[in-house]
Design a protein that fits this description.
The structure holds 2 protein chains of 2 kinds.
Chain A (H helix, E strand, L loop, with lengths): L2 H32 L1 H8 L5 H32 L2 H19 L5 H4 L2 H31 L5 H29 L2 H6 L4 H18 L5 H8 L7 H7 L1 H36 L4 H15 L1 H13 L1 H26 L13 E9 L2 E11 L5 E8 L16 E7 L2 H22 L2 H7 L6 H17 L2 H14 L11 H17 L2 H5 L3
Antiparallel strand pairs in A: 1-2, 2-3, 3-4
Chain B lengths: L1 H31 L4 H30 L9
Helix pairs in contact in B: 1-2
The chains are: A alpha+beta, B mainly alpha.
Chain lengths: ~500, ~80
């Protein structure tokens, strides 16, 4: 076997071990979000204000507050004791926390302890995720042959998207294998419990890996940092690179990533009223088709440079988000479609809701382009009808839209385009962050801007965008549904200008 | 190019101040007054997490840019 093929085989082992672990960490992080509705009914009853408060904390804190702290805590460890043992620790922490969430008795059984334990474990998940990514990216980059870091680290970049995909698939399979009652009763725990097996396999693989060669060399020379936090953020020379990494790359990447993967999903379900299963399927197809492009743009960044690949993604996003979302909105806007009146169906059904029998009027309409809408109006008993501020009764109405034919394909394409933007900004960013910091403080310095960019700027996107859209709607803006996009557009625009002007080859050439 | 980078430092400083105003006055404080707990948590995160990162972080970045820390010779 030639030296080159041995080297390639070695790097594949490194990629396999690192990517699998990171994939599992993202899977663990996402199943909580994907199962949030069932979790809230088991642990966070809405009629209990303390439990509801803990629920909000679990949702926000794990993503925004704890991830950067995890980046600092584990980043420091990784720069002092080594990459391998640190990201083994994050893996075990994440796996243990996820498994234990699946074991916690419900609120009905142990009362207040249930939401409290879930909150603590969710925070541990956030902490572990904060430490994992930087370790995996650094570890792979430090094993990569010269000039190929973009390509090899891009495998790590696929794991976040693929982790979301796997979490949706595992939940879907679990749901399919049992009845709705079984899933609601105990089946929802299966995806959490499964995590321990996945983590164990990943642990066995990672256990036999060597420490990164660059870190080993620095350690052997006695050049490791004594205080990586102080050197990263207390030293003006390094701090300016941390700020540049955040405002010139990670911030824009975070909002593009969240817009494509999460805002698009929420837009399809709540603004376009697309049927949940169809929205999930459309996003799933787009994610699956888009994932190979992480590798392509990582590879391309080795050839043409990281900066312009990432900035192209941001520029395209800020220029095209509004037309893309306008097109998406019009796909289900029935005001501009012709209804096939003879195919209209109206029926009344009696259903059981909260131990009471109520009637539902279901109206199904078919349009000339194959779009089907289903409107369900639930008639509440007189005593339970809620009223709005003006004293008018609030009608319980739910509309779902089903697309078919070319409209369906076109929507997949529009989501796929957004996934391509994600791959442009996200594919090369691990290599970019690794290369702007020296080996002795790399884990700490690169983890923080990444998790602030992705976790804070990206993570707040749903809340800020919803606020902007609601505000625009209350001001009777006819294009209120596009108002939420101002947040990712403005952040991407600022990030693009900073990145284009201040990032230059000399800042990462010294660490290549 | 070095001159533009320095001048834009002022823009980043102004942007940091505008961001602080919007985060605190427009997004943050109104959330404290709604009486809903989920709004309270959101308000706390906006005021105590997002605002310092944007306004202090971007402010320091702007200061570095204005003082020539991002000049080619200092990279």
């Amino acid at each position: 076997m030639t030296t080159e093929s041995k080297e390639t085989k070695g790097i594949w082992k490194v990629i396999g071990a690192s990517s699998l672990g990171t994939l599992i960490e993202w899977y663990d992080f996402f199943i909580f979000g994907s199962l949030s509705i069932v979790i809230s009914t088991k642990f966070f009853p809405a009629d209990n204000p303390t439990a509801a408060f803990l629920s909000t904390l679990a949702t926000f804190a794990a993503g925004f507050v704890v991830r950067p702290f995890g980046a600092l805590f584990f980043g420091r460890l990784g720069d002092v004791i080594g990459r391998k043992y640190t990201f083994m620790a994050t893996l075990l922490l994440m796996g243990g926390a996820t498994f234990l969430i699946g074991c916690i008795p419900s609120y009905e059984t142990i009362g207040f302890w249930a939401p409290l334990l879930v909150l603590i474990l969710r925070l541990l998940q956030g902490l572990a995720l904060g430490g994992e990514y930087g370790g995996a990216a650094t570890y792979v980059a430090e094993h990569s042959p010269k000039g190929q870091r973009g390509y090899w680290t891009s495998w790590i970049q696929t794991t976040a998207t693929f982790g979301l995909f796997v979490s949706l698939i595992v939940i879907l399979i679990t749901r399919t294998l049992m009845s709705e009652e079984q899933f609601d009763d105990w089946g929802w725990r299966v995806p959490f419990l499964l995590s321990i097996a996945m983590v164990y396999v990943s642990y066995l693989i990672r256990k036999n890996m060597d420490e990164s060669p660059e870190f080993k060399k620095v350690k052997a020379e006695g050049k490791t940092s004594k205080n990586p936090l102080k050197e990263s953020f207390g030293n003006k020379y390094n701090l300016k690179f941390v700020l540049l990494a955040l405002f010139g790359a990670a911030m824009g990447q975070g909002v593009v990533w969240y817009t494509g993967q999460f805002y698009s999903m929420s837009f399809m379900k709540t603004v376009m009223h697309l049927h949940t299963d169809q929205a999930d399927m459309i996003l799933g197809i787009a994610l699956l088709c888009g994932t190979p492009f992480f590798i392509f743009f990582g590879w391309l960044s080795d050839k043409v440079g990281r900066k312009w690949v990432m900035l192209t993604g941001m520029a395209l996003a800020l220029l095209t988000y509004r037309p893309i979302y306008e097109q998406m909105y019009q796909l289900t806007n029935t005001e501009k479609k012709t209804e096939l009146v003879d195919k209209k169906e109206v029926k009344e059904e009696m259903i059981e809701k909260d131990d009471k029998i109520v009637s539902q009027i279901i109206t199904q309409r078919v349009y000339d382009d194959g779009t089907i809408t289903k409107e369900i109006i639930t008639n509440q008993p007189e005593s339970e009808v809620k009223k709005d501020l003006h004293g008018h009764p609030i009608v319980q109405q739910k509309t779902s839209v089903h697309l078919s034919g070319m409209n369906y394909v076109f929507l997949v394409l529009l989501i796929f385009i957004q996934i391509i933007y994600i791959t442009l900004v996200y594919g090369p960013i691990a290599a970019f962050l690794v290369e702007i910091f020296p080996v002795n403080i790399r884990y700490t310095s690169m983890s923080l801007p990444y998790h602030i960019g992705n976790g804070v700027f990206g993570g707040l996107l749903p809340a800020v965008s919803t606020y902007l859209a609601t505000n625009a709607q209350s001001l009777h803006d006819p294009e209120y549904y596009l108002a939420g996009l101002w947040y990712p557009i403005i952040i991407s625009a600022v990030c693009f200008i900073i990145g284009a002007l201040y990032i230059n080859k000399s800042i990462y050439a010294k660490n290549q | 190019m070095e001159f533009i980078k320095k001048i834009l430092g002022i823009v980043w400083l102004i942007l940091a101040a505008i961001a602080a105003y919007f985060c605190i006055v427009q997004f943050g404080f109104p959330k404290f007054q709604t009486g809903h707990q989920e709004d309270l948590v959101f308000g706390i995160i906006i005021v105590f997490i997002l605002t310092p990162i944007i306004s202090i972080g971007l402010g320091v970045f702007g200061y570095f840019a204005l003082t020539g820390e991002f000049d080619e010779s200092k990279m």
